[in-house]
Amino acid sequence: MAKIDEVAKAAGVSISTVSYALSGKRTISAETRRRIEQAVRELDYRPNAGARMLAGRRTNIFALTEPFRADTHAPAHMSFVLATSIAARRYDYDVLLLTDEEATAGMRRVASSGLADAVLVLDVAPDDERVGLARRLDIPSVFIGVPNDHEGLVCVDLDFEAAAALAVDHLAAAGHRSIGLVGHPPGAYLRSNFPPRVRAGFERRAAELGLDSSVERPEAGGTRGAAVRAAVEALLERGVTGLVLHCDDATHLAVLDALAARGLSVPGDVAVVSVGATFDTTSFQPPLDVIPLIPQASCDLAVDLAMQSMTPAPPAPGVRLIAPEYHEHGSVGEAADGSVAAHPPD
Amino acid sequence: MAKIDEVAKAAGVSISTVSYALSGKRTISAETRRRIEQAVRELDYRPNAGARMLAGRRTNIFALTEPFRADTHAPAHMSFVLATSIAARRYDYDVLLLTDEEATAGMRRVASSGLADAVLVLDVAPDDERVGLARRLDIPSVFIGVPNDHEGLVCVDLDFEAAAALAVDHLAAAGHRSIGLVGHPPGAYLRSNFPPRVRAGFERRAAELGLDSSVERPEAGGTRGAAVRAAVEALLERGVTGLVLHCDDATHLAVLDALAARGLSVPGDVAVVSVGATFDTTSFQPPLDVIPLIPQASCDLAVDLAMQSMTPAPPAPGVRLIAPEYHEHGSVGEAADGSVAAHPPD
DNA sequence: CGATATAGTCGAAGCGCTTCGACGACGAGC
DNA sequence: GCTCGTCGTCGAAGCGCTTCGACTATATCG
């Protein structure tokens, strides 16, 4: 717990010189800097956080609001929290966690007590109460996810619509004329911002290409995949030969099981593409083509934007969509009827 | 962003009176307090965090170190993070998250820069590098989990040994003479502190009661429960009629599937007890008896101890084990051979 | 009834840092 | 040779709060 005056004394310079050497905000001679750095090392000096906040008007802390509701899909959300935390550390920022009811109230508290320099908003609902609050806050915020009303906000996310459209493109290019989407349960469409966007992208592109399309949104868990099985049955009965999966890993498994139970092979009889997965789709049997949701991509960008928000030239409000990437793993084959269209785009 | 001097002026008192009224550290007349509180409300005053830290030598922040490694079981760990955060808020404390590589290095950084008042250590490995560091830190720490070498540390956890023993007691009381443990995969016994404790409690009590006992530790995931099925087969071949489950939810499902596939019913043919689950075991088919791991219990106690660590009378180092509780849901029946022992111990 | 305790309030001294303005030294330009 | 600008450094003024000691007014006691 050495203090800056001890460093100054050890290096034979004044307190302000130490401060400038450490912050780099004024030029310091190489020799002086060397002596200061050595003193810092020898004394294991680390500036006091409170003093730094008070004098520097900067906390080096991001508040991360992530409700962690009971129905939150833990693995995906944990990935985002982790990715945010890692991204923040690149700029020497720490992450303060606001969960549960405090996810909203804490934003106000933390902002007006000057505990954080910016707020990162996770697990964004379509109609999120943190939207209005963010506009009123006197520190910047960045949303990872896109609420319905996002005017004036800085948002970052995978382009889920484009991702779904890209999946449809690949199925269409392989000759599939009737395709199905296995989506999240209906409840998720109210609580989360992205399931509706996947669905919209899926249906729009299918319509543009003149494909038959259907959507099923089975409840996950429950009686051991029965709902998923029923959903798959329903899609197959409508003649679907290409499947887009936007759901959790257990539902992925259940879909593959249901297909196997019907004696259908992937990609022989049915083509399958996973969209927006944060988990590894290559460990399924068979490995699945995927347009992944990469937390690191969103979180890195979000943190960059948060940093920029604190400069004199903050980023313009608006939605930054990350372009989807298609990863082939062999789960999409030519449609059985042979009426194959052109090659997959790109 | 009103400041304390504005509150003082609005209430017609001095700055120090406002401070004392807000902290309660000196007596303030009812009338004065009323005027101050009103001014605080009208100005929406909130003390500046940095100034408070600097002057008060207290951050109102707990550092929470939780590595979130790649193989971390997300739902369980998220529950602990959430429970800790909620418990901390009860004392007006915020939680700063240290993940990944920073889980260790961040402890040192946060402690010596005075960014946190105490450290809460999650996801404790048997041989955890944070143990040595915690001893050297100049702020207190509380471990949620018990490392092998815990001398001088304050630790909190479910009494996993007693929990496993309690499960064995119930199986024995129902007349089961040959019992099996389905534990976490072998790797988890190195990374986590509690699987070995469950195993030890299981084997010790089985030996004390003169039961035949076997342990299987199937790899989870992978080829769709094949390892779990094999483990169950192996146990059944050894004549096991009572099963203790200490594993993730997917493995629970796989075990029940494997039993069903053999045409065995629960509790008719096989008795099943789940130990240390953080998930709901009543949604299985059938609902399972359980000795749950309740994150809230551990985290509340941990936060209480952390608070007490900052008083002039810190808690004595040592392991605080939380007594296990048995919840009956009908998955344990009398053993088939009829040689039933006494009733389950309370 | 004077000595003493107690309640209620205030002023001022920090807490450890950042940053502004100033100043000396020195090289460049005229 | 003198002025000017730049580089490197320093002193000191805060940042907004907590807390110590002191002071007044009132209550308590022998």
UniProtKB/TrEMBL annotation, chains A, B:
It comes from the Bacteria. GO terms for molecular function: DNA-binding transcription factor activity; transcription cis-regulatory region binding. Residues 2-56 form the HTH lacI-type domain. SUPFAM superfamilies: lambda repressor-like DNA-binding domains, Periplasmic binding protein-like I. Gene3D superfamilies: 3.40.50.2300, lambda repressor-like DNA-binding domains. The keyword Transcription applies. It comes from Agromyces tardus. The keyword DNA-binding applies. SMART domains: HTH_LACI. Pfam families: LacI (PF00356), Peripla_BP_3 (PF13377). InterPro entries: HTH_LacI, LacI/GalR-like_sensor, Lambda_DNA-bd_dom_sf, Peripla_BP_I. Keywords: DNA-binding, Transcription, Transcription regulation. This is LacI family transcriptional regulator.
